[in-house]
Amino acid sequence: MDPLLPFSIPVKGLHHGLHQYDFQIDRSFFEQFEASPIAEGNVEMTLYFDKRPEMFVLEFEFEGTVRAECDRCTAAIDLPIADAQQLLVKFSYETMPEEAEVIYVNPEISHFNVAQYAYEYICLALPMISVYDCENDDPRPCNQEMLRLINQGQTSQDDEQPGGGNSIWEALKNLDQDNP
User: Fold this and answer.
1) pTM for this structure?
2) Which tens digit of pLDDT belongs to each residue from 114-161?
3) What is the DSSP string of 19-34?
């Protein structure tokens, strides 16, 4: 069975009003998207589908974890994510340019697949830096050897700073003084 099939909402015959759909998003979902920055995850998503005479209002709410490499210690971590996004789907027989949170569809469609939008919103929820406070995790996923090497490198840089005269910044400070 196609893992994206459950994300196809039957809109023909759906009564006006608010409808709720719950989805469990996992590895099989992310595998459907080529060159995805997410290979696996466990995300619970609730879609609030408000059907109105001239449009749909879709509210995506999701929370869970995605597998990532820690930017601090390079260990594999389950990175927590959570977000909410809104998408307006308006009806039009003509081809209209898409906007940031508004898309246009033919009023005669029978199904509307939300998988691509769910995927994009989850990707947008990824933090720029993949780290989190894992002190309370048991076992801690941190690569202790890598953290030790990072701390060792920071300590040696601190030793070379003020007073040591070995700072690379000393040469830059003197540049302005050389030109009268």
Assistant:
1) 0.77
2) 999 999 999 999 998 887 777 777 777 777 777 778 777 766 655 555
3) EEEEEEE-HHHHTTST
Residue 21: CB partners within 8 Å, gap ≥ 6? 9, 46, 47, 49
For the chain, which residues make up each domain, given as ranges?
5-124, 144-178
CA distances to 5, 73, 130, 154, 171 from 151, in Å: 48, 11, 19, 5, 26
Determine the residue type at 11: V
Q: Which two tokens stand for residue 160?
A: 């070379």
Q: Which residue has the tokens 């996923």?
A: 141
Q: Which residues contact 17 (CB under 8 A, 6 or more apart)?
A: 50, 51
